[in-house]
Amino acid sequence: MDALENIRLFQELVRCGGDIHTWCYGADGALLGSNCPDEGIFDTAFTLSGCRGRMLDYGAAQDGPVVLGAGMGLIWGAAFEKQGGQLARAYVLGPVFFSDVAIQQIKNGLAAYDGEAAMAWKVRFIEHIKQVPAAQHI
Predict the structure, then answer these.
(1) For an engineered disulfide with 77, which of 93, 95, 100, 136 has Cβ 3.0 to 4.6 Å away?
(2) Among 117, 134, 121, which residue's Cα sits nearest to residue 38?
(3) How many angstroms separate the CA atoms of 138 and 136, rounded?
(4) What is the pLDDT of residues 16-42, one digit of tens each?
(5) Which residues contact 30 (CB under 8 A, 6 or more apart)?
(6) Alpha carbon 103 to chain centroid distance?
(7) H-helix or E-strand spanning residue 105
(8) What is the three-state SS of 36-70?
(9) Which of 44, 43, 106, 104 is nearest to 74 (CA)?
């Protein structure tokens, strides 16, 4: 199997456990692909929360996987592909909540991004976040 076939198989296996999405980022942080229907909303959350930057920093220095969290209770897991010791790609699972979270807690968490995120994005995010599973229920 080539890498793309492996990724597709992995995506299918992960979906068996719930509605958890897979993502692939390049070494520069560019989103290369995802199976998330709300890709723009959750990629923005990944970036605004600082998780994309922390993922790239960690992946450049370390080889093992990492769990990344956002203040509003979201987590993502990331694993890395390296070529010649350099980060080539990052494969991400998520987002999921680390436990059940009330909508008001999410709104409070979003307040930290008042200067960075447009109100329209926040409204769309709140609408779509209800579909994100809690890790304890997966």
Answers:
(1) 93
(2) 121
(3) 6
(4) 656 788 899 999 999 999 989 999 999
(5) none
(6) 19
(7) helix 103-110
(8) CCCHHHHHHHHHHCCHHHHHHHHHHHCCCCEEEEC
(9) 106
